[in-house]
Amino acid sequence: MDIDKTETILITCGRGIVPYLSKEVGELGYKVESSHNTGIEISASLRDTMKLNLALRTAYHVLYLLKKFSCNNPDELYKEIASFPWEDVVAPSEYLSVISRTDTPAINNSVFASQKMKDAIVDRISEKCGSRPSSGPGKDNVVINFYWKDDKCWVYLNTSGKKLSDRGYRKIPHKAPLQETLAAALLRAARFDGSQSLVNPMCGSGTLAIEAALIALKRAPGLLRNNFGLQHMIGFDPLAWIALRKEMNARSSKKLPFRIIASDIDKKAIQAAKKNAQTAGVERMIEFYVCDFKDTPMPEEKGIVILNPEYGLRLGSAEELEKTYKSIGDFFKNKCSGFTGYIFTGNMALAKKVGLRTSRRLIFFNAKIECRLLEYEIYAGSKEKNGNAPGALEL
Ligand SMILES: C[S@@+](CC[C@H](N)C(=O)[O-])C[C@H]1O[C@@H](n2cnc3c(N)ncnc32)[C@H](O)[C@@H]1O
Description:
Elements: E1 7-12, H1 18-27, E2 34-36, E3 39-44, H2 46-55, E4 61-70, H3 74-82, E5 95-103, H4 110-129, E6 134-135, E7 142-149, E8 152-158, H5 180-189, E9 197-200, H6 207-216, H7 238-251, E10 260-264, H8 267-279, E11 286-290, E12 303-307, H9 318-335, E13 340-345, H10 348-352, E14 360-366, E15 369-377
Parallel strand pairs: 5-6, 5-7, 9-10, 9-12, 10-11, 12-13
Antiparallel strand pairs: 1-3, 1-4, 2-3, 4-8, 7-8, 13-15, 14-15
Helix pairs in contact: 2-7, 3-4, 5-6
Protein name: RNA methyltransferase
GO molecular function, one term: rRNA (guanine-N2-)-methyltransferase activity
Keywords: Methyltransferase, RNA-binding, Transferase
């Protein structure tokens, strides 16, 4: 394949993440041409997908458009797919998987669409090369994404393979862990860039603290992974890939200028978080404590304090949680003056128990649950002194 040919690239993400993904992509020097609920489009080359896959923190997949066409039934689909030069994309020695999403009266089953796609691809390669790739559900080799909406079809080479949220460091997930890409988006929403300290009580398996350390060190999350879909396509440039990984690695810092503190009441959570941080190569950057969130040591330098308490839908009982949320408000007032506080929760009734005024409320989705990232500006002194600023506290 011509890896320098510019095409449409669809970068997918979770619901609510598009604004943060757009900023990240913009910072990497690309112009966002259109955006959807769960993704954005840019124009770029397969060579660019190397950088995008390594650098992006909030994206799920980087998809390179191979073909777009109109189609009204499965036979037309087979013909259109079989007319594409797949022998230039997938070697017969590879393993292939197809992911389909269909919303069309032409077909009532996306599994059938994947089957038809796969048959057309392997038949074409077999005809041109004399042998064919094996295929199945695994996402470790060549992955093709297929969308069929009404009579329009899009076929993409999935240059990521497995989701980019699967960084590879979370060996021990503990209870209700946040997805890594969501944690990165929350930190971006909290304007964390490593130039301030970060405190993460109730850290669970440590996702927020680990993502914060990676951001603060300017360490590209993709450097933690050794396998991406793009490495399996014909035309992959291994020397350019190694050089880019080296260059990105050299750009990351070795030391943090500010402290990152993570704590949890559960010893097992801290054991899991430490192990995960070790796998991510940031265990020496994070101070871990086993303690109630109220006893978390606070650094001198002000910054961000962010908590993701249980919210009753999956874990914890609502009555006990009411007390916990009220105590978080007290903790902010008593110990976090000068910090910006954040609570990420899916239960707004519980959030009211915090008893403080929010300065921002941002919508996110944790799996299918609509959640909020609530921001509290925590000032010392009276409301009057702080000019009635939103979230100002009377201490
Ligand atoms: C929803 S989980 C956090 C998940 C985390 N964001 C992650 O990605 O793994 C909530 C955590 O709060 C902890 N926790 C509950 N009550 C606590 C308390 N009073 N003090 C400190 N931690 C507490 C639990 O042990 C649990 O690990």
